[in-house]
Amino acid sequence: MSIRCKISNCARSTWYSLLFACALAQAGEPAQALETVSLQFKWSHAFQFAGYYAALEQGYYREAGLDVRLLEAVPGLDPLESVLSGQAQYGVGTSSLLLARAAGQPVVVLAVVFQHSPLVLVARQDLTRPGTQGIHDLVGKRVMIEPQSDELVAYLKQEGIRLDRLVQVPHSFEPKDLIAGQIDAMSAYVTNELYYLEDAGMAYQTYTPRSVGIDFYGDNLFTTEQELKKHPQRVRAFREASLRGWQYAMEHPVEIADLILAKYSKQHPRAFYLFEAERMVPLLRTDLIEVGYMNRGRWRHIAATYADLGLLPRDYALDGFLYEPDSRPDLTKLYIALALLTLVSVIAVYVARINRRLGLALDEKSRSEERHRIIFQTTASAGVVWREGFVVTDWNRQAEAVFGWKREEVLGRSFIDFMVPISDRERLTPHLGRLIRENVLPHGINDNLTRDGRVITCEWFNAWLPERPGEPREVVSLANDISERQRLENEIRQLAFFDALTRLPNRRLLLDRLGRVLAALRRDGGHGALMFLDLDNFKPLNDSYGHAVGDLLLVEVARRLCECVREMDTVARFGGDEFVVLLGNLDDDQGLARNHAERLARKILDRVGEPYRLARAQVETAIEHRCTASLGVAVFNEAADEEDILRRADTAMYAAKGEGRNRIAVDAGLPGEAPDREAASHVDRRASHAG
């Protein structure tokens, strides 16, 4: 037998003796009782805390030797204070934990659950400007911003919007205030409040700090330095069991939603919890990032944002703030015990353990890389891996399908050169470069090129890949083509708020704009005017040549009306051969406002009365036609209401018809005057049949 075999057998014999002795010692001890700890939520029960319910229900905490109590937040309770005072050992908090640490509070972040914060500003959609509404439209509007919304404040500051330029309203945490129009915008979670807006059918616009590179973490699991120092193993066990729970919860959302309803809260319907679960997927990104992962660079970026707000000093140190689960325990006692073994035994055991760990680590690394490779290649999103200089290092099958280039055609090339439209390159290249240097990877929506020259709109999600020593850092970017979705959304807006024939605003959109004009008058003073216009000789044209020719006349009348008014005014088709012109921002003096409205009415009457040449498809001879209009004008101020204005204008229009047609009648009286019965009933009939 060789010397190596003898040493190995000797070491193995000694090691088995030690294990046997330890087993006998443990057999004499009673079973260890579960340790009771509490976890303080920052809000009421919701899918937002799904991982902790799953860890409890699946027995992960019990397996870790823990009896965990989940504490729901109540009004007036500060989760941070609950943990610092010892009422709970663990808590869920926002990125403002960094401010608490800087203020001397001994908090330690154990894990990040939400890789991206769900906090956004949500505003009522301006239906008059689909697709053009921006964050600067909130200036002067009524906005509710909840406490500790530092990322929103930083976002507004970066956009040049000071808080004093908003009409700030105390936050009620009630989406119905936005739905009812009592406010214009509010801070909200994309996972929560948006459910009720969509359930109410309200059109809304969201503004996220991530659009300007401000990317805070969301919910963070935290504890105290005292808990970590006194119970390091308990901290590790609690963290690992919680993260196992989160992995399970995101893989079984329906089961956890039912669990919440059955055991924790019936405050919301089942559909709400499923909506919350769906909206959390792109915020946690468990398909790309290990649950609980924290990036020190991201925390430095958050600290820099707080420094810009004057809440932290520049270059604030993160020492002790971030938990390091892989830190080694104190092995002094173990070294003393091992010193009692013979030198040969120590060496043999050490080598065997190192070899085993190395083999397991290599196997696990290989399995992990293969698992992520399969996920990357089979995901439904177009996937691009790239490094500094925007150089593509990987390109999945869906990217080939969406953009058209094969993998071998793009490897080693800068995606800026072939995927980004020329008009966007100057803007995007320095912007993306700055974000990379600042360690920020925002979510974004951009136009992109395809190999066949098309321009498509894609929604992008980005994440850092784990670093490899000696290699450049890489980013994985996943894209979904949303061009068709945007087209359908625009079509739906067009059908809902615009007349299909003339492309003018319909009755619904007119009423919305009339409400806005009245709101502006109540804020700034002045007058407005509303004109009802009815074509006088429309029916004979329809009877003689058919509705197709009548439609040609209506389209031409709409075009002429739009030529007569200011860009800020509204021309709408009210139905049939009736049109409405809405004017705002007229003079404070009622007489001058009336004169302005009358001048425009005469201009409209003259323009509408000019001859028409109506060219029919596949017919050489155009139809010559003349028609006039009867026009009723109602001048109003801030005391008026929508129904009264419409009735007064309609009454005036019928007065013009009664006086011989092709003329103007003006009602400049005070609001509230009763129109004659015939005209009033006409307005009511039209309203009941408007569609």
UniProtKB/TrEMBL annotation:
<feature type="compositionally biased region" description="Basic and acidic residues">
    <location>
        <begin position="674"/>
        <end position="691"/>
    </location>
</feature>
<dbReference type="InterPro" id="IPR000014">
    <property type="entry name" value="PAS"/>
</dbReference>
<feature type="region of interest" description="Disordered">
    <location>
        <begin position="667"/>
        <end position="691"/>
    </location>
</feature>
<feature type="domain" description="GGDEF">
    <location>
        <begin position="526"/>
        <end position="669"/>
    </location>
</feature>
<feature type="domain" description="PAS">
    <location>
        <begin position="368"/>
        <end position="439"/>
    </location>
</feature>
<dbReference type="Pfam" id="PF00990">
    <property type="entry name" value="GGDEF"/>
</dbReference>
<feature type="transmembrane region" description="Helical">
    <location>
        <begin position="334"/>
        <end position="352"/>
    </location>
</feature>
<dbReference type="InterPro" id="IPR043128">
    <property type="entry name" value="Rev_trsase/Diguanyl_cyclase"/>
</dbReference>
<dbReference type="GO" id="GO:0003824">
    <property type="term" value="F:catalytic activity"/>
</dbReference>
<feature type="signal peptide">
    <location>
        <begin position="1"/>
        <end position="27"/>
    </location>
</feature>
<keyword id="KW-1133">Transmembrane helix</keyword>
<dbReference type="GO" id="GO:0006355">
    <property type="term" value="P:regulation of DNA-templated transcription"/>
</dbReference>
<dbReference type="Pfam" id="PF09084">
    <property type="entry name" value="NMT1"/>
</dbReference>
<keyword id="KW-0812">Transmembrane</keyword>
<dbReference type="InterPro" id="IPR000160">
    <property type="entry name" value="GGDEF_dom"/>
</dbReference>
<dbReference type="InterPro" id="IPR052155">
    <property type="entry name" value="Biofilm_reg_signaling"/>
</dbReference>
<dbReference type="Pfam" id="PF00989">
    <property type="entry name" value="PAS"/>
</dbReference>
<dbReference type="InterPro" id="IPR013767">
    <property type="entry name" value="PAS_fold"/>
</dbReference>
<dbReference type="InterPro" id="IPR015168">
    <property type="entry name" value="SsuA/THI5"/>
</dbReference>
<keyword id="KW-0732">Signal</keyword>
<protein>
    <submittedName>
        <fullName>Diguanylate cyclase with PAS/PAC sensor</fullName>
    </submittedName>
</protein>
<keyword id="KW-0472">Membrane</keyword>
<dbReference type="InterPro" id="IPR029787">
    <property type="entry name" value="Nucleotide_cyclase"/>
</dbReference>
<dbReference type="InterPro" id="IPR035965">
    <property type="entry name" value="PAS-like_dom_sf"/>
</dbReference>
